[in-house]
Amino acid sequence: MIIPFHVREMLRRIKLRYDAEKTPQQLAPSDDDFTATRPSRKASPETVARFWERLKPRASEADQLQIADPATVQVAEIYGANIENFIGTVKLPVGIIGPLRLNGMNANGDFHVPLATTEAALVASYGRGAYAATQSGGISTAVLYEGVLRTPAFVFESLLQAGQFVDWVVSNIDMLKAAAESTTRHGELVSLEPFIDTNVVFLICRYTTGDAAGQNMVTIATDALCRAIADDCPIPIENWYIEGNFSGDKKASALGLVTGRGRKVSASVILSAKIVEKTLGTTVDAMLAYGQVANLGAHLSGQLGAQAHYANGLAAFYIATGQDAACVAESAMGVTRMESRGEDIFCSVTLPNILVGSVGGGTGLPSQTAALNILGLKGNGHGTALAEVAAATCLCGEISIVAAIAAGHFTRAHESLARHR
User: Which of 104, 169, 190, 326 has its CA 20 to 30 A from that of 112?
Assistant: First the structure.
């Protein structure tokens, strides 16, 4: 049997760190005393100070001032609704790209887009794509579909009972819809689809959520729906769970790619050969040639969809505007297309799982409010426009990175803007 070189190397490194006496002691369970930090939603200058006392001497006063700076501590109460055991805020660099011109169904006009990131070269890259797109007349955008999923699971003794349960659910859909919607002013249950696996039934509950991302909204609504089922359904239920890990919540899934979770958005632009050469430093043919190889790589590696780096732009956009950053796990999935249009190039992205809101979540925090105000998309009536901006931002990143790799500039840009900055 052949042992791969990397396995031998890994074992060699482990053995170098191994000490026959100390290592077993290091890895053994410890029963040393400790004082638990209990979850607390109360946030005030006094609670912040008490938490920092616990962190000494490992954390210095200078560390405290970096996280619990006076401006943050002064408005500590604002943060209590968004976090437990509040000790301050972490500052991230925020840059802007734009103006990014959007000709959208919901987002229309020129936008400066704030992006929060520690990755040098990211804002420059997305900004270059935005410049090329705006020079070309702007990006067309549309929200194609809406619906945040929650998928409760019900366990029965047999397949027969699971089938009887589905029949009962279908017969009582109006009552279940009313139960779910009684918990929210803005949410609406728009579809309920049973999925059977022998004695387990998943209910795919899809909601529209107004201008909110709606994760908590749909959880609370689905809990009411499930309790109505538990109270009234004559079929014996062995167990039920609010989420059966079927919805794709905060994970990439085939279901999310096909049906969407959140807002499904498409964004597209046609770049002229002249703009590609002058602004992006490459040619249409070179971009298309690299795009073919990148598409093949996506298929061969088993990507869900085919795209270059949606996660970069989405993470920076989500953090800047107060979205749930963990949703990037499912949002950064979709399909990028680049096709010839005569001498020009058609570029598009479709993202089926954009989970953003202009209200709720972290959108009310001071810095995030400011970022949304920069966009002009803070508050009611702007949720769909915000989703279109997110998709258009991803398109800018796809254009820029494909052009950079096609032209052989990718490494040089990262050396000049990141490593040697």
Answer: 326
**Co-location of 298 and 212 in the same domain:** no
Active site residue 238: no
188 and 237 together in one domain: yes
251 is catalytic: no
Q: Which helix (H) or strand (E) segment is 366 a member of?
A: helix 366-375
119 is catalytic: yes
pTM here is 0.93
Q: What is the CATH number of the domain that holds 184?
A: 3.30.70.420
Catalytic hit among 181, 188, 250, 409: 250
Rounded Cα gap, residues 107 and 95, in angstroms: 21
Same domain, yes or no: 276 and 348: yes
Give the gyration radius of the chain's Cα atoms. Answer: 25
Average pLDDT per block of 10 residues along the chain, 421 residues long: 85 89 90 87 94 94 96 95 96 97 98 97 96 98 96 98 98 98 96 97 97 95 98 98 96 93 97 98 98 96 96 98 97 98 98 97 96 98 98 98 92 64 59
Active site (annotated) includes residue 324: yes
Domain membership of residue 27 (yes or no) is no
Which residue among 119, 181, 188, 243 is the active-site one?
119
